[in-house]
Automatic annotation (TrEMBL):
Domain of life assignment: Eukaryota
Compartment annotation: Nucleus
Entry's Gene Ontology BP terms: 7-methylguanosine mRNA capping; methylation; mRNA modification
Name of the molecule in the record: Cap-specific mRNA (nucleoside-2'-O-)-methyltransferase 1
GO annotation, cellular component aspect: cytoplasm; nucleus
SUPFAM superfamilies in the record: S-adenosyl-L-methionine-dependent methyltransferases (SSF53335)
Molecular function GO terms recorded: methyltransferase cap1 activity; nucleic acid binding
Pfam families per record: FtsJ (PF01728), G-patch (PF01585)
Purpose of the protein: S-adenosyl-L-methionine-dependent methyltransferase that mediates RNA cap1 2'-O-ribose methylation to the 5'-cap structure of RNAs. Methylates the ribose of the first nucleotide of a m(7)GpppG-capped mRNA to produce m(7)GpppNmp (cap1). S-adenosyl-L-methionine-dependent methyltransferase that mediates mRNA cap1 2'-O-ribose methylation to the 5'-cap structure of mRNAs. Methylates the ribose of the first nucleotide of a m(7)GpppG-capped mRNA and small nuclear RNA (snRNA) to produce m(7)GpppRm (cap1). Displays a preference for cap0 transcripts. Cap1 modification is linked to higher levels of translation. May be involved in the interferon response pathway.
Catalytic activity: a 5'-end (N(7)-methyl 5'-triphosphoguanosine)-ribonucleoside in mRNA + S-adenosyl-L-methionine = a 5'-end (N(7)-methyl 5'-triphosphoguanosine)-(2'-O-methyl-ribonucleoside) in mRNA + S-adenosyl-L-homocysteine + H(+)
Keywords of this entry: Methyltransferase, mRNA capping, mRNA processing, Nucleus, S-adenosyl-L-methionine, Transferase
Region (Disordered): 1-36
EC number: 2.1.1.57
Length: 799
């Protein structure tokens, strides 16, 4: 029981071992004696040591070989052995660093090499430039393009860390770099933030390309095609896909294995819009960029998927471990430099851009490569973004505006790569040493001065960064206090939210649907399209208000598909009494927050017994595309442009396991006769008699399907209507209420998604509906047949 009134003495008494209840005197400590050496020993210890032969000031042991000094506290770091001292990295709290001398860069400036106005040399001239000589694996004498003292200091600073444990180096680097805590922000890795950093430095040159007058070169219906090579796991691409919000399509090639693209970790951008390809064998290839056959296959793949035009920009971030050989990283990376450059200029469209990671630029081979790029691009720069650690030799070459006459350089680089594949083997003592003569380089004073000054500037930055890490290794108490402020300011400057990386949550489809629609009007989803009959046909007052497309699902069944990321796709028939169900009958991948209306169609290729049936998804309309609400858009913008662009972005020709998605061919109602010209009888596998098939005009492979109806969509919103001016031979808009007419499209005249659904008609191609003269049955007069329909449309059209 606690007694708060008890005195301290009582408490002490209760806790003592004094049986008589009184506090006794504390026991006396044995008297200590002080010896000459300054140690304190009691009498017993001193007598015992004297018997064993100990003499003051002498060491222990038979030969008095023991140490006489005290054992000091260990300053061991990491896994260093006891007593290990690394020269130049001796622990000391006296070591300091002057943070005021290190400027935090507020705004990064880009410095371009002055533009080269000379024509590109012919392949015959460049072949004479190449020099094959003795293989060289040292860099300390490469002072042609850098100050000798700077190069010597770089190598000396690097050598200090040769014996340092990597983990100890990493900790000191993390504490010393003011930009370190930016890390990968909410992206996959630091590479993504580097790309955001450089994109911002270059006025969004990559994610929002502009012409010479500063105007965007992409129309809303255009896809921003890009390529990412030697860049697994894909941080560069994740940033681009996040920034462009579903308006881009990427192609990637990297080495298969641990460094492969990790699309499953693309949390910020839609991985469905990125398609890896690994050269020979496609997705089954090895991704070795040194292999000319892999290069050719990847180039063909990109060209085939960009209408033979190529991509708008290429990113390359290749690198490999050079542990123990850091000083010659540039020499070991020469073929990697070359092949990244070669593939890039092979797939870029004229005017396209390129960014690639490099390391040192001290050797004639590396400088020669930069010179070749300088000759075929409008502008070239060597830059080091602040997200690139100051103590490493990393830098980036940025090339803007590929010229039309670049093919000789592409061919020359291809031939150099063939030579390197032959020479860069262990048994060879030869190497390609020069690809541009020294006198050719020095003849261009602007170029050579730029390279020299760039190497000196970046070299001095690296020296300072290495010395700072050295100080932080020696003094574990040093810390870069500006990191938090620098992170906040940089993310703001690059327009990146200051968020942590987190995996997307897997919500159930009902919650996801309610989340993206935000409780807005979606009742039209449950609206059944009205059948077109002789009674409702008269509701069509003018053909110019309508578009139409052929329906291919034999049950005329439509579904709404909800994308929750990758293969997490759910379907719903629009019935309020029904539930969302997992899409199991086919496999597709949709970006998260996507809601589209579709039908599942069996398309056929070939005829008779050799015919092959393929399940195709026809995308009929769009409500949300990767979170973008397109319900208010006009039909032509929503379905023909946005949805068509979206489908092309997510189509992956290398993935045979995915069901292909197509957009139905859209006809103007006044031109509907063209549709009937695409109908023909074909022998269908499994049917004894030929069947009437529809062959879409946009199918290059000759595929067809059995038509089940025609969906007629009204694209003009009441009270507006469209008509044709005979005098001007031009369509115009007319308001039936205000009697206003105009040739320009009024903003409130176009039907949105809800309007289209509620005012559409479905003309069912059923028994008694004759749409082809070779059909065996007679037309049912109570139903609409082809002749009735075309006659009515012709009557509405002015002659």
């Amino acid at each position: 029981m606690d007694n708060s009134d008890s005195e301290p003495e009582d408490a002490l008494h209760i806790g003592s071992n004094n049986d008589d209840g009184d506090l006794g005197e504390p026991p006396q400590k044995k008297k200590k004696v002080e010896n000459v050496g300054g140690g304190l020993y009691n009498d017993f210890s001193a007598r015992m040591m004297a018997k064993m032969g100990y003499k003051e000031g002498m060491g222990l042991g038979k030969a008095q070989q023991g140490r006489t000094e005290i054992v000091e506290a260990s300053n061991q770091r990491g896994r260093r052995g006891l007593g290990l001292r690394i020269k130049g990295l001796e622990p000391s709290r006296e070591v300091d660093w002057n943070f005021e001398l290190e400027e935090i860069i507020e705004k990064e400036e880009i410095s371009w090499i002055p533009k080269c106005g000379e024509p590109v040399p012919s392949i015959e001239i460049m072949r004479n430039w190449k020099v094959v000589g003795k293989k060289k694996l040292t860099i300390d004498d490469e002072i042609e393009f850098c100050d000798e003292d700077v190069l010597s200091a770089i190598l000396k600073c690097k050598n200090v860390f040769d014996e340092l444990e990597p983990e100890e180096m990493r900790r000191a680097r993390t504490r010393s770099n003011p930009y370190e805590t930016i890390r990968g922000a909410f992206f996959l890795n630091r590479a993504a933030v580097k790309m955001a950093n450089m994109d911002s430095m270059l006025d969004d040159m990559f994610t929002s390309p502009k012409d010479a007058n500063g105007k965007p070169i992409l129309k809303p219906s255009d896809i921003l095609f890009f390529a990412d090579i030697c860049a697994g796991p894909g941080g560069f691409s994740e940033y681009v896909l996040w920034r462009t919000k579903g308006d881009a399509k990427g192609f990637g090639m990297t080495l298969k294995g641990p460094c492969d693209f990790k699309l499953e970790d693309f949390f910020a951008g839609p991985p469905e819009m990125f398609e890896p390809h690994y050269g020979v064998g496609g997705i089954e290839g090895d991704g070795d960029i040194f292999n000319p056959k892999n290069q050719a296959e990847f180039v063909k793949f990109v060209k085939d998927n960009t209408d033979d035009k190529g991509v708008y920009f290429v990113m390359a971030d290749g690198g490999f471990s050079v542990e123990g050989q850091e000083n010659i990283q540039e020499i070991l990376s020469k073929q990697l430099y070359l092949c990244q450059f070669l593939v890039a200029i092979s797939i870029l469209r004229p005017g396209g851009h390129f960014v690639c990671k490099l390391f040192d630029l001290f050797t004639p081979f590396s400088v020669g490569l930069v010179y070749l790029m300088y000759r075929i691009f409008d502008k070239v720069s060597i830059c080091k973004p602040v997200t690139s650690r100051p103590a490493n030799s990393e830098r980036y070459i940025v090339c803007q505006g590929l010229r039309d006459d670049s093919d000789p350089v592409r061919q020359y680089m291809h031939e150099i790569n063939l030579d390197l594949n032959r020479l860069l083997v262990p048994s060879s003592t030869q190497d390609v040493c020069h690809i541009v003569p020294m006198d050719e380089l020095h003849a261009d004073e602007c170029f050579i001065n730029y390279i020299y000054e760039s190497n000196v500037k970046l070299g001095q930055m690296q020296i300072s960064g290495l010395k700072k890490i050295q100080a932080f290794v020696q003094n574990g108490q040093l810390y870069e206090t500006r990191q938090a402020d620098v992170r906040r300011d940089c993310l703001k400057r690059w327009n990146l939210p200051d968020e942590v990386r987190k995996a997307p949550t897997k919500s159930n489809p009902k919650d996801k649907f309610e989340s993206i629609t935000e409780g807005s009007d979606v009742d039209f989803i449950s609206h059944d399209i009205e059948d077109l009959s002789p009674d409702t046909l008269s509701n069509i007052k003018t053909p110019y208000n309508y578009r139409c497309y052929v329906v291919g699902n034999q049950e005329r069944k439509r579904w709404y598909l909800l994308g929750c990321g990758r293969s997490h796709v759910f379907k719903w028939d629009g019935n309020p009494q029904s539930r969302w169900r997992k899409l199991d009958e086919i496999r597709i991948e949709l970006p998260t927050d996507t809601l589209i209306e579709v039908e599942i169609v069996q398309e056929m290729k070939g005829e008779g017994t050799g015919q092959r049936r393929v399940t195709i998804l026809h995308a009929l309309d769009a409500l949300f595309l990767y979170g973008k609400d397109v319900r208010s858009y006009a039909f032509s913008d929503r379905q023909i442009e946005r949805l068509k662009k979206f489908v092309r972005c997510i189509t992956k020709h290398t993935r045979n396991d995915l069901t292909k998605i197509h957009i139905p061919y859209i006809y103007r109602l006044e031109e509907v006769h063209q549709l009937f010209d695409r109908l023909e009888f074909r022998r269908v596998k499994g049917s004894s008699n030929p069947r009437l098939c529809y062959c879409p005009p946009d199918r290059d492979d000759g595929r067809c399907f059995l038509p089940s109806g025609l969906c007629i969509v009204k694209i003009v919103k009441d009270p507006w209507t469209m008509a044709l001016s005979k005098s001007a031979n031009q369509k115009y808009f007319y308001n039936t209420l205000t009697k206003e007419s105009t040739f320009s499209c009024p903003l409130n005249s176009m039907a949105n998604c809800s309007d289209c659904k509620k005012s559409s008609y479905l003309w069912k191609f059923e028994e008694g509906v004759k749409i082809h003269p070779n059909q065996a049955f007679s037309a049912n007069p109570k139903k609409i047949s082809k002749d009735n329909f075309l006659d009515y449309i012709q009557m509405l059209s002015p002659r």
